[in-house]
Write a structure and sequence with these properties.
single chain; alpha/beta; Alpha-Beta Plaits; 3 domains; eight-stranded parallel beta sheet; 17 helices; 23 strands
């Protein structure tokens, strides 16, 4: 019997193992249209296309194709078509093709299979099983083109009542805020209102860190947020100095790695968000490979160039709700109680109880990221098997906070696979104050969901580590696309509100009577708190 060897030792002796996987995509080139211009060679960042000098023609190494379609979009003669490989294994309900492919990859590499973007498994998308109400005879609809429609919303703790004429001294007999939890009292004066963000539309750009995305992509997000009267989140990778001019529309994160966090970072932002978890990888930390940590990213994250940026799974100073409260109030103290403080968690099985504790710990905003939330890099096994859908998590959290009569203490922001304005307005009806969009923003900038963000080779420049690739993304044009997307969704939200006879977003928030379910089990309707269609 031969001596047992490690994977590395085996590669040293035998060389890399021969891949047993067929190409995932086929690159079809129309010889009648192809003019051998080589545009596909320059546009592909994965080395698929190459010029065969011997044959004097451009050829494709299909094994490298990730399906980003950059070559097909920019081919001047439309000679290229990218298709999924129709080759199939013998059908097996238990051993589906994706399991076979991942198993073969791990047998060849001995490593964890990484992926990008959000969960792509065919779990039920509850937004598609919820239908909205509409006005007919007794409750007239509203024409948003002729009558004002209010999409403005505020994120932060809300008092039960506000006395517009009273001053602090007039209310001196009653406490204006809870001495420990910082909670608004039943009646407060206008000058004692807690800090809040004002959004002109209930759509914000989700946390995407510099390094995971390119400088150009983050610049586009910030420009769009400013133009739309909303906010973009820096993610956990720090905040580049040249982008500090957008401070009125930027949310900063404090994650377990504390990358880029200092007093200026906290005080220049509009809101501070403590990141506990992420929908694509609940319970584990973050990892930006050293190859992507170039000099500008290293400066921003305050780490040595070329080193892996590792965020531990837990915050090493948070092991209880009481510990979380200490960090919340430390951040409030550091920002002179002028900024709302949010806490972001992944949607997990006991998320309602967790949210209750976060609200009582003094957070002003709770952000919940569902199982379909995107990421730059995550173990595929985690992304596809951990967490719960945002629809169920949102409904459970909103109900729990209302039952405990603490819903006004916090605003709820939800994320995790929002694809359209219909998803957004249904989330508002389930109890959300606003939503984060990440993948939708990527698609607006050109992303084709190839799920190779972690390689740093994004052909569209969005998650590229190579400066030459990153420059493919024109931040001004990308911002224009994002602005158009937000304006279009906002217009559609107004149309749907008008159809329901509602002229303000506040009137829809948490009003589940405007939702009906189709094709759901009773337990699902019970969790969502909605009736079946026809009831």
């Amino acid at each position: 019997m031969g001596q047992a060897r490690t994977h590395i030792e085996a590669q040293a002796v035998f060389g890399p193992l021969k891949p047993y996987l067929e190409p995932e995509f086929l690159v079809e080139r129309d010889p009648d249209r192809c003019i051998q211009c080589g545009v596909c060679i320059s546009q592909c960042s994965f080395g698929v296309h190459w010029f065969d000098v011997r044959r004097s023609q451009v050829r494709a190494e299909q094994e490298r194709c990730v399906g980003c379609h950059r070559c097909a979009v920019f081919c001047p003669t439309g000679a290229l078509t990218i298709r999924r490989n129709p080759s199939e294994y013998r059908p097996n309900a238990n051993w589906r093709p994706e399991f076979v492919a991942d198993l073969k990859r791990q047998a060849e590499t001995g490593g964890v299979v990484l992926t990008g973007m959000g969960n792509d498994k065919p779990f039920r998308v509850y937004w598609d099983h919820l239908l909205l109400n509409a006005s007919q005879v007794t409750n007239p609809s509203i024409d948003p083109l002729r009558e004002p429609m209010e999409l403005r919303t505020f994120l932060g703790a809300r008092p039960d009542q506000v006395n517009p004429s009273a001053s602090t001294s007039a209310l001196a007999d009653g406490a204006t805020s809870h001495p420990v939890e910082g909670l608004p009292a039943a009646m407060v004066s206008v000058e004692d209102l807690p800090p809040a963000l004002q959004l002109e539309t209930p759509i914000m750009f989700s946390a995407m860190s510099y390094g995971a995305i390119s400088f150009q992509a983050q610049l586009a997000l910030f420009e769009a947020a400013q133009a739309c009267g909303t906010y973009a989140n820096t993610g956990e990778g720090g905040w580049p100095r040249p982008l500090r001019r957008f401070h009125d529309h930027v949310i900063v994160q404090v994650a377990s790695g504390r990358f880029g966090v200092d007093a200026d970072y906290l005080n220049e932002a509009a809101m501070v968000e403590i990141k506990i978890g992420q929908g694509a990888k609940p319970g584990i930390g973050g990892h930006l490979p050293g190859e992507k940590v170039k000099a500008p990213i290293a400066r921003t994250r305050m780490i040595p160039e070329g080193t892996d940026a590792l965020s531990p799974a837990p915050h090493h100073d948070i092991y209880s709700i009481e510990d979380l409260a200490l960090l919340i109030y430390a951040l409030k103290e550091a920002t002179h109680y002028e900024k709302p403080v949010a806490v972001k968690v992944a949607a997990v099985h006991n998320v309602a109880a967790i949210a209750s504790g976060i609200a009582r710990a003094g957070a002003d905003v709770i952000a919940i990221d569902g199982v379909r939330g995107g990421t730059g890099a995550a173990p595929k096994i985690i992304r596809d098997n951990v967490g719960i859908p945002i629809e169920l998590a949102l409904a459970a959290v909103d109900r729990r906070l209302r039952e405990e009569k603490i819903r006004n203490r916090v605003s709820l922001v939800v994320a995790g696979g929002f694809r359209s304005s219909a998803d957004v307005i249904k989330a508002i009806a389930l109890g959300a104050d606003a939503v984060y969009i990440g993948t939708a923003a990527f698609v607006a900038m050109g992303c084709t969901l190839c799920q190779k963000c972690y390689t740093g080779k994004c052909a569209w420049g969005i998650t590229a580590a190579d400066p030459a690739l990153a420059r493919r993304l024109n931040p001004d044009l990308a911002a224009e696309r994002l602005i158009n997307l937000v304006h279009a969704w906002s217009a559609e939200i107004k149309e749907m509100l008008g159809g329901m006879g509602i002229n303000a977003l506040e009137s829809l928030r948490g009003n589940r009577d405007h939702l009906r379910a189709v094709g759901l089990e009773q337990w699902e309707m019970d969790v969502l708190g909605v009736k079946g269609a026809g009831q």
